[in-house]
Amino acid sequence: MASLTNEILKDVALTNKLLRLVNTAHYSRGSSISTVSRAVTLVGFNGIRNMALSLVLLEHMQDKAHANLLKEEFLRSLMAGSIASELYSSRNESEEAFIGSMFQNLGRLLTEYYFPEEARAVRALTSAKEPVDEASASTTVLGMSYEELGIGISKAWNLPDTIQRSIRKPIGNPPATPSANVADRIRWVAVEANEMADVLLRSEPKDKAAK
Q: What is the mean pLDDT of residues 153-168?
């Protein structure tokens, strides 16, 4: 069971589908399910296999440039989750940090998948000679920020409250000491992990260490 859980956690899309599935009324029965290990127990091996097979469609997308951008976003989310999980010694909290960090940029990932032209327009605004931040750029193009989109979709999908909260980035400076509240700790770790993933993937090799 542990090995299967670890393999699922490596796949952003599969983790997403699994948590959506188990948080339907049929499985959750009123209680939120926020860890993959619990979800695997509920869904079973056959259910996991069927979800994994459905994700093979990404490999057969006709627009290869678009498919590559999606894979890059998946990789970035996976790397952020991996970084976050390494910062925890508690297995259960480590898994929630992994998932929270992956989902923090759900809005950007969904836009890239369903609205590639709009995603391209957002990237153009953030990389212009006088760039704007991603929140402003996505609001200009979509009428809402990536964060607001991600939160709205997570509610529609009935994802656990811990994941919904992790999508909303905390405001202000990071606390000097870890918060006593688990959800707040995960939100801050998710921010840190995603920033580190961006540096690792998008910085020049000579600049990575300093950044």
A: 88
How far is the CA of 211 from the CAs of 128, 141, 191, 200, 205, in angstroms?
22, 29, 15, 9, 10
Of 147, 150, 36, the closest CA to residue 96 belongs to 36
Which CATH code fits 62-208? Answer: 1.10.3210.10
Query: In the chain, where are the structural domains located?
Result: 62-208
Task: Report the b/e string of 154-180 with b at 16+ CB within 10 A.
Answer: beebebbebbbbbbeeeeeeeeeeeee
The pLDDT of residue 122 is 95
CA atoms of 89 and 53, how far apart (whole Å): 33
Tokens of 156: 């529609």
